[in-house]
Write a structure and sequence with these properties.
Layout (H helix, E strand, L loop, with lengths): L7 H22 L6 H13 L4 E5 L2 H11 L7 E4 L5 H9 L3 E4 L11 H9 L3 H6 E5 L10 H10 L3 E5 L7 E2 L2 E2 L6 E5 L13 E5 L2 H10 L21 H11 L2 H22 L5 E2 L13 E5 L3 H10 L29 H9 E4 L7 H18 L1
Parallel strand pairs: 2-3, 2-4, 4-5, 5-8
Antiparallel strand pairs: 1-9, 6-7, 8-9, 10-11, 11-12
């Protein structure tokens, strides 16, 4: 049996007719950059995320970058985030000229630890506090970070909050949607996301009228009106075709989320029946609505050998993320070292993502668990 990590072809079959009809209309219009399709999606995403505004941009990475630019964050500034995330989180900070500062994660949720965040800020000198401008919590794998204490800490120190919600559209924290709690919410429509385009795309949400206006200006080279540049922006525009695809998919997102949650529940029951609790730690559901962009388990030993065994059985897996940001070669000048963030480092060595996509069958899920059980029984 084959169980790929993700099977977008199955999803496409269900929406193919709508996609092709919409594509033909768009191609006939020859309106490809921004325009009514993008404006319509922006309203739909803002409503879905419980936010006042949304601004379509070229990628999830550019969503982070433009949010930092909107707050004039740059050289001599610092921004705190987690070392256990996709490169874009820290990379966007560095691209502005600012310095990333990392704090460790909660070992259960893998999200940034509010306790570590508070400790790091409390230990800063006055000069360091003056340079600190923002915090980027990451809602990893589809579950919101613990935002209440993060919001309190950032309010105390007058820090901007940029939510990296690239993996978490639709997830909730105490009745609030990801992307609606901070100053900015950043989303990715990379094809593998639970709401993916047919190429790159992203979105920034905000509840501020001023931030909204600035984001709109920055995404078009800082011009407003056209050819008049008060700011130095970039080419961060979302194209109309990607907006049309995401708009179609958004109608099915809650249905797909329910299927992911059902698959997660199925995994839990099968793992419990397999009596693997001593070797496999399942995802911890802490917040209101986990949307399972990934289903990530932690294993006590032989993670890479397990992946090889599953691959030989036709089962796709992935490691998010094998090298924490503080140990990446490009950040060596930050002077972090191995052992600085033990929870992030342990997660990098012991976690593995299993297939969780909506179209996954019960038989496929059972096959995955059976093979994990077979691996650990065989090795005993």
């Amino acid at each position: 049996m084959k169980v790929p990590l993700l099977d977008l072809k199955e999803q496409y079959k269900t929406i193919k007719k709508e996609i092709l009809e919409t594509a033909e209309e768009l191609f006939e219009s020859q309106y490809f950059i921004l325009g009514p399709r993008v404006a319509s999606l922006e309203k739909e995403i803002a409503d879905y995320c419980f936010s006042k505004h949304a601004v379509g941009v070229s990628s999830g990475t550019d969503a982070l970058l433009i949010s930092l630019m909107a707050m004039d964050i740059g050289v001599k500034d610092t921004v705190i985030t987690t070392p256990y995330t996709f490169f874009a989180t820290a990379g966007s900070i560095a691209r502005t000229g600012a310095r990333p500062i990392f704090v460790d994660i909660d070992p259960k949720t893998y999200n940034i630890s509010p306790e570590c965040l508070e400790s790091a800020i409390d230990s800063m000198s006055r000069t360091e506090l003056e340079r600190l401008k923002a915090v980027i919590p990451v809602h990893l794998y589809g579950q919101c970070a613990d935002m209440a204490p993060i919001l309190q800490i950032c309010e105390k120190y007058d820090l901007v909050i940029i939510e990296d919600a690239a993996q978490a559209i639709g997830s909730e924290y105490r009745g609030k949607r990801a992307g609606s709690m901070g100053d900015f919410g950043c989303f990715s429509f990379f094809p593998s996301k639970n709401l993916g385009a047919f190429g790159d795309g992203g979105m920034v949400t905000t509840n501020s009228d001023d931030f909204y206006d600035k984001l709109c200006t920055l995404r078009a080279h800082g011009s407003h009106p056209k050819y008049y540049h008060k700011l130095i922006g970039g080419n961060f525009r979302l194209d109309a075709f990607q907006a049309a695809v995401v708009s179609i998919k958004l109608k099915y997102l809650d249905q797909w989320t329910e299927a992911r949650q059902k698959n997660a529940k199925n995994y839990r029951a099968l793992f419990k029946h397999a009596d693997l609790e001593d070797v496999v730690q399942l995802p911890f559901e802490k917040e209101d609505r986990h949307i399972y962009n990934q289903f990530v388990i932690r294993v006590k030993e032989r993670r890479d050998d397990l992946r090889g065994f599953l691959n030989d059985s036709g089962i796709g897996t992935e490691v998010y993320y094998p090298v924490p940001m503080h140990l990446q070669a490009c950040f060596s000048d930050l002077n972090y070292k191995k052992g600085d963030f033990p929870q992030a480092e342990h997660a990098a060595l012991h976690t593995v993502a299993l297939p969780i996509y909506p179209e996954l069958s019960d038989d496929q899920i059972e096959y995955v668990v059976e093979n994990i059980k077979a691996f650990y029984l065989k090795k005993k």
